[in-house]
Amino acid sequence: MPPDYETALQRYETLRRRDDATIHARGGSILLAHGRRTPRVVLLLHGLTASPMQCVALARSLHGNGDTVLVPRLPGHGARDRLTTQLRELRGEHLLDAAREALAIARGLGVSVTVAGFSLGGLLAAWIAQHESVDHVVAIAPFLGVACVPRAATATLVAALRALPNVFLWWDPIRRERQMPDHGYPRYPTHAIAEALGIAAALGMRARSTPPATRRITIVTNASETGVNNGAARDLAGMWSAHRAGSVELRSITGLPPSHDVIEPLRPGTLARRAYRTLLPILHDVRP
After folding, report:
1. Sign of CA dihedral 28, 29, 34, 40
2. I need a labelling partner for 258 at 20 to 30 A (CA). Which of 12, 171, 245, 283 fits?
3. What is the mean pLDDT of residues 10-15?
4. DSSP letters spanning 239-250
5. 3-state SS, one letter per residue, for 63-125
6. Of 251, 195, 182, which is closest to residue 23 (Cα–Cα)?
7. pLDDT class of 102 with cuts at 50, 70, 90
8. Predicted local distance difference test score (pLDDT) of residue 152
9. Domain ranges of the chain
10. DSSP per residue over 189-248, as a string?
């Protein structure tokens, strides 16, 4: 095996060893490999309070097409105890460090690198697009702002969240801890939202003045989005496009009911399968 590939496997093993007995059986990092360095590797990044399992259907499709696929568990995620308070300590630098580490592993697993992420993972994918040169970045419903919060008010929201106590809120106040799937958490800490929005703010400032390091970027929004701010995604695409330094494409998933997590394969119904009709052709596209 080439030295880069062997080193990447060793680095992945270090990552995998962090998935100890406290991690859910379906909550740990995933590597779908072919026993050799492949022409392409796809790095998939999951969303806030989810786990790599959120991306597993996309990962299997890409792997079946010949790609190596890496889905790392982000810090504080994937615990067996769904009511864990680990995310209370999550910081933006922890997320960026994890993204850099995963990208370094991915570079050794394939010749070309595609990075894709959903929600928080979409924000991290967009951050990679700005700062790192890879072949393609696909940011799916990136968490660049909160739905229904005017973009001009985001800085005020972040300041308020950081000043107030770090409390946990339920994603679904009715179902609370009964919310499924069980490899994710049913609640989130408010300071984690502020940390993510801090990354988004820094990314926006950088994008205004500096072209992205990645020259091919696709941002995918959900026309029926309920969680993240589609306007913020359009703004970022506009800032990148203004530099005329590459290809920045905006795509939209249409025809879904009001929703945010459109990729989770274990949710009831056909929502994810319908979203995949848009997402999989984008992810499988390997044009230069």
Report:
1. positive
2. 283
3. 96
4. HHHHTTSSEEEE
5. HHCCCEEEECCCCCCCECCCCCCHHHHCCHHHHHHHHHHHHHHHHHHEEEEEEEEECHHHHHH
6. 182
7. very high
8. 86
9. 3-284
10. EHHHHHHHHHHHHHHHHHHHHS--S-SEEEEEEETTBSSB-HHHHHHHHHHHHHTTSSEE
3-class DSSP assignment, residue 269: coil
Distance between CA atoms of residues 80 and 65, nearest Å = 32
Instruction: Name the token pair of 253.
Output: 């998933």
**3-284 placed in CATH 3.40.50.1820:** yes
Residue listed under structure tokens 């609370």:
176
**For residues 168 and 164, what is the distance between their CA atoms, to the nearest angstrom?**
12
Give SS3 for 255. Answer: coil
* pLDDT, tens only, 41-73: 999 999 999 999 999 999 999 999 999 999 999
Structure token pair of residue 89? 């300590």
Which residue type is seen at 254?
Answer: T
> What SS3 state is found at 14?
helix
Residue 245 pLDDT class (50, 70, 90 cuts):
confident
CB 218 within 8 A of CB 251: yes
In the Cβ-directed half-sphere of 96, how many Cα atoms lie within 13 Å?
18
Q: How far is CA 13 from CA 18, 62, 214, in A?
A: 9, 21, 28
